[in-house]
Amino acid sequence: MSASSDSDSDSEYPFLYEPGWVDWDGEGENIERYSSGGLHPVHLNDFFPTSSPGSEGYRILHKLGYGGFSHVWYGQNLRHGGAALKFIASDQTGKTLEVEINNFLASRSKEEPGFHNVALCLETFQVNGPNGIHDVIATEPALRMSSVLYTSAMDSLDDRVVFRQTLAGLGFIHKHGFVHRDLHVGNIAIEFPFLRTAGVAAIMQSTGHPVCHALLPMAPTSNPPPLPTYVVESAKFCQHFTLTNADTQCFVVKIIDFGCSFRPVTDEPPNPYHHGPPKPPECNLLEMIPGRRLPSTPEDVPENSSNNHPWSELLESERGSTCSGISRCLGPQLVCARRRLGHRLHPPFDPGTE
């Protein structure tokens, strides 16, 4: 980290870092979001109690990821084992359906097709901190597909199983009237039992010890901003552990992150600040096949793939174009979409046709 040459000691953020971002190895975190209405400052070994009966609370062990509107940490709980804890920015708390959707889907029957292909919400609670009140969502821990895509871990997984389970999870979400609206490889994850059951020592061995970057004030201040004392690089699980045959046989695909989701029948879509131009989901799902050319503009999308509808706004578009894209990749090996996704919101779909 280095200080900017035009840093202003009267700035709200007179700290030793490049303005706005802490940067390492091409990654960066916008620390100016640690302000009133923004993110909650979380540190390693922090403990967060919950109000759920029988819950022992969560001890923070590592960071899993971050964004402008939330950050996700790996924590452990005596009752649930390992968990992913998503801390939502204060100015977004209560403004999306994310908590409601997570709790609703978790309450459905475990026997429903696709139930196990959506990350199970273990519990939700709130944290009151210096930047406001934050919703926290504890879910099953899983590795985002984007983090395993080009590692040896992905070589061990069957693409067909990944796609089929993704469709099953999407069908489960649609069956209950929700549109995910942000389906891409960053929001499709792989669950390995190791993440739920490993002890602290095993987790540290698998991820390496957390790499921290201190935030150092450049000038004395009597009213420092509510920043964390340091920021933590996201854990890189796949660089430190290899999958056993048992792991590759019992992996489960999980759809995660419902921050942009809504009910198209009754709700207005949330503010689409997360998105670029609308495009069908196969543009994102094809990222799971290394070497395949990805459409980058609407003109590049295969003809009739999305029926000219923005995929983020219609159940039919989200489901239909996903099936179309996957069927082009897998052909007759694809499990029948009608059997996987059949429910009252969807007409029958033949994966052999466009």
UniProtKB/TrEMBL annotation:
Record bears the keyword Nucleotide-binding: yes
Entry binding sites for ATP: K86
UniProt GO molecular function: ATP binding; protein serine/threonine kinase activity
Catalytic activity: L-threonyl-[protein] + ATP = O-phospho-L-threonyl-[protein] + ADP + H(+); L-seryl-[protein] + ATP = O-phospho-L-seryl-[protein] + ADP + H(+)
Domain called Protein kinase: residue spans: 58-354
Protein's recorded name: non-specific serine/threonine protein kinase
GO biological process, alphabetically ordered: regulation of mRNA processing; spliceosomal complex assembly
Entry keywords, A to Z: ATP-binding, Kinase, Nucleotide-binding, Serine/threonine-protein kinase, Transferase
